[in-house]
């Protein structure tokens, strides 16, 4: 049987996770500024004593929630089906398709915690801004790796035959995503976000046309 100390540690870990999971939902629903410690505790079904056992302040929670959100997203995208596709262009398009597929449930369930917090707190809470920038940038770099591989597979080279980079396109994908979430909130409907992702996919398809097979290239007129 587990020891009493082990059981206590597990209970503490469980209560912290409940608070973080509650924060992900409540902050995405109400915004960081409007969210109170009491709101988090109520959503987690825990007391304020439990909250302050784990977190010094709401900002401390916000920082932990950003890390928690990133870890969850990193696991989700790391195990997504598109990751196993051999062609990097297919992986890139699969990423967009996967982002569209997870536009499910209520707004706070599919919108971005990092984008929500940084829009409010970039000036008033520099530590939260830095955390959001770090995690958004880390995700963008994951997308950038597939873009760089896709560019190599299609013979695209910055300053040679194109005037953009893998990094700039990776950040553009994130700008489209964050903008689509804002529109979904304004219209209270995921359809507009799905339309934005469809446009992003079409744009990527224009940047990365299908590879020509040897037979197709030989059939082209001289």
Describe the structure.
This protein has 11 helices and no strands. The protein has a domain at 57-209: Tetracycline Repressor, domain 2 (Orthogonal Bundle), CATH 1.10.357.10. Helices cover 73% and strands 0% of the residues. Helix 4 packs parallel to helix 8, helix 5 crosses helix 8 and helix 8 crosses helix 9. The longest helix is centred in the middle third of the chain and has 28 residues, at 126-153. The chain has 222 residues and is mostly helical.
Order of helices and strands: HHHHHHHHHHH
Average pLDDT value? Answer: 92
**Uncertain regions spanning at least 5 consecutive residues:** 3-10
Shape annotation: elongated
Structural class: mainly alpha
CATH superfamily of the domain at 57-209, by name, is Tetracycline Repressor, domain 2
Q: What share of the residues lie within helices? A: over 70%
Residue share in β-strands: under 5%
Helix segment tally: 11
């Amino acid at each position: 049987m587990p020891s009493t100390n082990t059981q206590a540690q597990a209970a503490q870990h469980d209560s912290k996770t409940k608070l973080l999971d509650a924060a992900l939902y409540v902050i995405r629903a109400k915004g960081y500024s409007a969210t109170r410690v009491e709101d988090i505790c109520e959503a987690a079904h825990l007391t304020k004593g439990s909250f302050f056992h784990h977190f010094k302040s709401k900002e401390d929670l916000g920082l932990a929630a950003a890390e928690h959100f990133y870890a969850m997203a990193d696991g989700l995208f790391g195990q997504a089906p598109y990751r196993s596709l051999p062609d990097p262009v297919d992986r890139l398009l699969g990423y967009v398709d996967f982002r569209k597929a997870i536009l499910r449930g209520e707004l706070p369930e599919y919108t971005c915690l990092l984008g929500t917090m940084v829009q409010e707190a970039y000036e008033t809470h520099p530590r939260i801004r830095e955390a959001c920038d770090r995690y958004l940038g880390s995700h963008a770099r994951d997308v950038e790796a597939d873009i760089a591989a896709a560019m190599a597979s299609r013979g695209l080279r910055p300053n040679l035959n194109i005037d953009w980079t893998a990094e700039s396109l990776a950040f553009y994908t994130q700008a489209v995503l964050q903008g689509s979430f804002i529109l979904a909130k304004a219209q209270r409907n995921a359809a507009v976000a799905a339309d934005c992702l469809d446009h992003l996919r079409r744009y990527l398809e224009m940047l990365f046309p299908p590879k020509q097979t040897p037979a197709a290239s030989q059939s082209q007129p001289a």
